[in-house]
Batch of 4 targets.
Target 1
Amino acid sequence: MSPTRERLTPEPPSWLGIPPFPEAVKEALGKAEQRKNLRHATGTIRAKRVARADEVDNWEELRTAAAQIKDRVGRHLDDYLVQAEKAMTDAGVTVHWARDGKEANRIVADIAKAKGVDEVVKIKSMATQEIDLNEALEAEGIAAWETDLAELIVQLGHDLPSHILVPAIHRNRSEVREIFRTEMGTYGTPAPAGVSDNPEELTAAARTHLRDKFLRSKMAVSGGNFIIADTGTLVIVESEGNGRMCLTLPETLVSVVGIEKLLPTIEDLEVFLKLLPRSSTGERMNPYTSFWTGVTPGDGPQDLHVILLDNGRTNVLSDPVGRAALRCIRCSACLNICPVYERVGGHAYGSMYPGPIGAILGPQLRGLEEERDRALPYASTLCGACNDVCPVRIPFTDILVHLRHKVAEYKSSKHPTVEGGIMKGAGWVMSDGKHLASVQVASRAAGKLYRGKWIGPMPVPLAGRWLQARDVEAPPTETFREWWKKNREGGQK
């Protein structure tokens, strides 16, 4: 059982406490050590990814196949979900449906209480971060221990993850040593007194710290990289083996999985197991790839639960342009190539999904009511590098432009602006030739009024600072229609 203390687990800061991206980047750009760490880490991963992708002769065909498979899942998601539920239920899994994070958290907490446990071990999971599961369990008196090494660093450091694949990418090994030295003993087995910043020593300290938690925990929580619809098989890929420990030792396993993570058949998985490791860690295959199909007596957890999480995904699916974001397999290749992410890090995005994928997925999952979400589609140079590396061909730049348009529409609907009024008027003018002709009469009159002169800067309320440094030529004294009539229809040829 977990030791008694004021807080069961280290308390992280809140995403809600981070200002919108345009403000957050000012502080992020001042962190020279963080920029150095990010530049080194992302550069290393990029180089490995290029080398591994170049080994595959049909790399581009695999990307196309992956995109088509995910799109097919989206088109028939209702059918695949029903099929997957039946297959999992037939295999002995209890399937739950969660409309949002609050409902999913309640289900996990209720299962833990029913089992009489006050702590769980966790496999790294973006879905559980998305719904703030750790904080919800803490409020119910249940400790949630992260077992992924990078997630452990973040948790013990009272920090927030800054990368999808490498949550502690913003930390160097000296910082990790200090976190282990000062925090490990508060929440379990302490680090050795003389631990150095040598990676092998730090890893050994983490292994010792986690071993007790693995051996005593009766319940584990995971996400899921994929669910095979026709067999009900869950798939998790990982690099350290901590996931394998969580999938074999505890008596109860609860998996929180987004409804978009389905694949039709096991044959479809082959495509993704070639793309995912090469795109994420620059490896030919994942060190640990775990499959489990229901309950097997005497082998692994005997009480399996799967929570199928919506939490805004059906809203994303309803957008013909934005729905391509649901192809994402959380490889983080878009983060590693992004020049913006490399300079500001993940925290500036104010979301567990940083980088290009965060800029297009977060605002769609949560909506545009908050300023932080309205700012994210602008957190990009639109250079298109993310389009080129994405293993499932997500058209990031198209979606970013689409979301910028939606943000502009949202702002105009809430607070009408002069610019919006001008654009609405221009739309009326250009919608009909008669409208244009009537406006041209006014333009001609203005041209005669300012004949031979220049119009200086426009009044600030009308044009703002743009025209304060620019001159605009006077309107013409003759419209194009008049010129055409005189020179082409009956006048000079």
Target 2
Amino acid sequence: MTTVEPVTRFRQVLAVPGLTPLLGISLLARTAITADAMALTMVVVVTLGHSYAAAGAVVAALTAGVALGGPVLGRMIDRRGLRTVLPITIVPQLLFWSAVPVLPYVVLVGASFVAGLLMVPVQAVTRQAITAMTTAEQRRAAFALESVAGEVSYLVGPAVVILFATTLSPGVVSWGVGAAIVAGGAGIMLLDPPLRAEGETSGAAAGRPRRREWLGVRVVAVLLMGFGVAMLLSGVDLAIVATLREAGRVSWAALVVAVCGAASVVGGLVYGALPRPVPTWLLLGLLALVTIPAGLAPTWPWLCVAVVGIGLLTAPTLVTVTDAVSRLTPAGVRGEATGLHSSAAGAGFALGAPVVGMAIDVSTSAGGFAAAGLAGLLAALTGYLLWRSGTAAVAPPIADLTRT
């Protein structure tokens, strides 16, 4: 393979009509969505004067809503289409974020849950569109770019919220977050990307199979591994903070997280350029194995070195999960499947921090990395065993994922 082939592969993906503007609009909306928890935290703590625990309850309500609403919205998109469903999510986001600064705390908790239920499904729609707009050979590189955009949003979104919340006000920042979410949803609605490929819009492919026909053992295996990698990553973030706090260097946490994110961007680009995929269970297992010893880093510079390995494997693992979901599910249920994927990841992120937090409380900060890694390792092993025992509902597209 020549050195220009990886670049050519990404150029081919970006040359797909409509894909570049879709990724750009998705990046705007996802940056705001990744910052929504921080925006709500700042409003509750600074504007309303409540505790961080109270802010956590608001964020938990939002997260629970997103997890429950994802599959429902995906199913609605499968049945009714994108332009019918998106307005149902855009209008509530506009109303919610406009009112956030003036809502009483109790009302804010309930409203956050409803806003989560009706969150604009930017990530799920983007992944469906990528599946429909690209060929099988282009898809992994396209999902790598989508994963890289996600890493950039996580690096930028919360930092921007903190900066402007301290220089302006949390209320103004919440309006900005809401405006970006609404603008992203409206942009996707106007772009109206295809969610099914041309060959999937007629005949049997356009039908909606029953859930038991497609939600088989292998789909469950992939969703479980998606849950596992999210739980691992959520735990790693907490373990980084705990490690540096234990060393009296908590101010360096942002730098360590940024190093991990930058390494993930590099890993995603490298993986997207590879000629052949790597099994999901293997990548997740490797990610878990490099996570476990990271807590042994004696100083923050060594911790930066340790998280490089975690970062390099993060985006590739996320890409393989996304790619597997797209390949395993028929077109008629792809929206519901991507919604389930988002819910599994959301549940993993929600569970990772408390589980790792308990491990840190009963041991040390190094125990946090160990707990996060062991959770990922368990998910990888279980996913592998389920994958080997299951049968493929869509055998031809996923043949390359079974190579060991």
Target 3
Amino acid sequence: MTLPTPHPDHVVVITGASQGIGLAMAKDLARLGHNLVLIARRAELLQHIADELSTTHQITAQAYPCDLADAQARTQLVDELQQWEVSMLVNSAGIASFGPFMDQDWDYEQNQFGLNATAVFELTRAVLPGMLARRSGVICNVGSAAGNMPIPNNATYVFTKAGVNAFTEALHYELRGTGVSATLLAPGPVREALKPEAERSIVDKVVPDWLWTTYETCSQETLEAMSKGKRRVVPGPLGKAMDTISAYAPTAVISPIAGWFYKKMA
């Protein structure tokens, strides 16, 4: 399988497109000639990115400001998605919280669930009918290596990412033979290639630079996996290590250790 060929009437929809993995994938897909619909909350920044990509790569990049944690905003977006010819969907938007579940702000936790899980669920459902009818399309959902294990002090995040992981891999098998594929991106820690010392979190300081996966590398490995119709991609050495450890190490051993580490991030 290969990625869908750029077409003037088709669009690639990317959520979380104003930063991180979503932005890196938007840049790479624009470079390949795909028209884009970029979705994120920050309208001014999103429009700037859309204008820059349109000018640089001679494609059409549309900024679509939307708070995907808001049910009404999602409903409006879903209605529009069903009218577009979506060749690829990249669900990259997400947030996290750290610390004991009962100490978290409940509104934030509900927004986190809506953004990380419900939006992925609803947007995937919105684009699949058109893809299946055309027998062409690719869905990439961004889960996490953290979704492979129970991590205390990161409960809501791992709840949502475990769901995204399993949902996407289940779809991968369901879609075999349809011309449509689903790929799970399940990274470990990802960040900018160079991060100023003043902006470094405890995780940045503890994990050596060479172990990190950059947004750009993450995008490149993911697009390669999507082009091959792979079920799952885990970029970077640290992500691969987390993936292996979670598969073989006893939960009773690794969960308390991970929980202690994540509590330090609260």
Target 4
Amino acid sequence: MKAIKFSVLMSVYKKEKPDYLAACLESLVNQTLLPDEMLILCDGPLTEELEEVLHTYKDKYSDLVNIVPFSENRGLGYTLADGVELAKYDLIARMDTDDIAVSNRFAKQVDYMSQHPEVDILGSNIFEFSDSVDHVTASRIVPETHDAIYQFAKRRNPFNHMTVMYRREAVLAAGNYQPLKGYEDYYLWVRMLANDAQAANLPDKLVYARADEEMYKRRGGWSYFKSGMAAYNKIYQVGLANPVDYIVRVTGQFIFNLTPIKLRTFLYKKVLRKDDEVRTGEG
């Protein structure tokens, strides 16, 4: 018997790949603990191929899959804010539609949240992979305790957003998701922490996250640096960080965004990530 009922919250838009979406959904319907709702928000019109994937799963899992279409592409912040309001259950798990959940992800997280009612937001570490989950290239390791998460959040995102499970009440108390392109999740986390939400990360790796060479290319250039700093300026205004944190963030972002692609890739993998010898496994 489940301790807590929960929803999975995802947003999909037209530029996503149908095969990635299908692999994601397959990982969710094969969990050792199934969600009680898979809430999939369509951020604007989708391609026929994406629609076909969604309706294949809707037809097969009609009691589980809840598809909500929006006529316009409004952006992730607005879409996820609606999702928090629309979810049937107070416990909500985030998931990206191009990543793959380890089969016991929800079982581990629901068990932890059941045993720790004081925790409002719970994440985990991730595998990063390219091509297939058999080709793990690195891991992103995040701090586990509330105090460590709070300190880490002053300079960097303390959660792998696609692993997070949170309580709706704490999200709404912090102002819900708000538009901040590329930083919607991080912006929510710092507002939750500033609002005294309690946080934790499991040491397990519970999601395989896609991280190909294109990702490293996208995270470079003057335009990316400027947009990143504009977003961090807003995050900084929440009040968690001090001027030293700000300087460290600006310096780090400048170095990582404006170095040549080969050096940037090396820095991401060797400094911001950890090489991982584990190629398969349940985390």
